[in-house]
Design a protein that fits this description.
48% helix; 3 helices; 138 residues
């Protein structure tokens, strides 16, 4: 089962990369030297990737594992390794070598300025994820 957000929230999440990418393009257009323009390219590419990752933030889980797509990385965790879901929200889990780990669920982090509908959607998704983690089923 996949847990994502409504489109307007997904677009807002991508803003973290879109806005700086646009500024980088504007800088590159205005830059006088080729070196300055060349230096803007990695920044624009990096922020563009961050915008795409922000739009694709999600949590997917099935009977055996959970996949967490965050801004910087995608993490796949076996269901049996999960020890809990925190209020942050984050997944607490234990790695194969016994090390305790913590992976934030960025897609479900709430902010003060968001709508009550979005907050309710996130709280409901976290509740279902906790049930899944306890019962071992989707």
């Amino acid at each position: 089962m996949e847990r994502t957000l409504p489109s307007r929230n997904r677009l807002a999440n991508s803003g973290l990369g879109v806005v700086p990418a646009i500024v980088g393009v504007a800088y590159a257009v205005q830059a006088e030297g080729g070196v300055q323009r060349l230096l803007a390219i990695p920044a624009v590419l990096g922020f563009s990737a961050l915008a795409v990752r922000g739009y694709r933030l999600a949590v997917t889980y099935d009977h055996s594992r959970i996949t967490i797509r965050g801004y910087m990385r995608t993490r796949v965790i076996d269901r049996g390794a999960i020890t809990g879901i925190t209020d942050f929200p984050a997944v607490r889990w234990t790695s194969g070598n016994g090390r305790r780990r913590w992976t934030p669920l960025t897609v479900f982090v709430t902010s003060t300025g968001e709508s009550s509908a979005a907050r309710t959607h996130k709280e409901r998704a976290i509740r279902r994820l906790r049930q899944w983690a306890r019962r071992g089923g989707g």
